[in-house]
Amino acid sequence: MTHSSLHFPPLGEFDFVKKVLSDSLPMDEVSPESRFWFGAGDDCAAFDGWLVTKDMSAENSHFRLDWSTPEQAVEKCIVSNVSDISSMGGEPKIALLGICVNKNWNKLTRERVAKAFADGFRKRGISLIGGDVVSADRGLFSVTLLGRGVGNPLKRSGAKVGDTVYVSSPLGASSAGLWAFLHGKQDDPDLLDVVSEHLCPVIDEKRGARLVHAGVSGGCIDLSDGLSSELNHLALSSGVQIFIDEKKVPIHPGVLRLCKKYGTDPREFWLKGGEDYRLLFTTNVAKGIFEEKNIPVYPVGQVLEGSGVILRNLEGKMENLHADCWSHL
Fold this sequence. Notes:
The protein is of the alpha+beta class. The chain has two domains: about 10-150, CATH 3.30.1330.10; about 155-320, PurM-like C-terminal domain (Phosphoribosyl-aminoimidazole Synthetase, Chain A, domain 2, Alpha-Beta Complex). The protein is about 30% helix and about 25% strand. It has ten helices and twelve strands. The chain has helices at about 10-20, 70-85, 105-125, 175-180, 190-200, 205-215, 225-240, 255-260, 265-270, 285-290, and strands spanning about 45, 50-60, 90-100, 125-135, 140-150, 165, 220, 240-245, 280-285, 300-305, 310, 320. It is globular. About 45% of the residues are buried.
């Protein structure tokens, strides 16, 4: 997939590529101001100041076209990548795209996928500069996304003793939406908000950059694999202990609605569920600063000396909180 080809042969693959590249933004020639370099271990790696991440969405694992529209599946894939850039205080700028087209998708589905990627990148100011298209028995989307930091990157190793632990939004909606599908409740009017959040999450994609501008320099990670997992990532990477008060954890109202109606445990969603794509971060910046800058945040705990994650449950008892999340393997 390349901009250099001005004329495409009348072949299906090249016609598809042309649709994906339709109205693609030209590359922004502005380079990163800071020249940081680091490898694996965070939501992004970095080279010469560019934040870089890769996330994939596999059909029947991350999306199902009998549940979602092609547009929702594409948006979810783009959001998962943008969230990684955001969690490190960056703004997405450049993308490489790989698409494995399901051989059984009809022409309209292929065209909708192509248009959704073209529109999704363009509306975010992301230049699509290349990639590849293949076909197989199942669909797959693969995005490599590069972003520029607005300051020093927010890393998992940045949590410091004395920091307050925050989450950026109420949690658990996406996994509650998945529960609805798996239990045949996706058409329940009381669950439409969590179903929508699972199919096509809507996040504040500039939240990480806004946190950097507010003075945050602590640890940060996006909540793609569940709160219990990401808390342990932060604690281990930073060499600290993290204390969480369950009473302070903001739970999405749709999750509470589901649990009350069907007798499920909210922890299954806000603690173990993934794909929220919200931010978990630590900082010593006063909460009033966030209020002044109109940045919603929810304090849920503290960073302490030690190791691991400790949770004070609703009964006031302390629990050692181990990573408990979805695994693809």
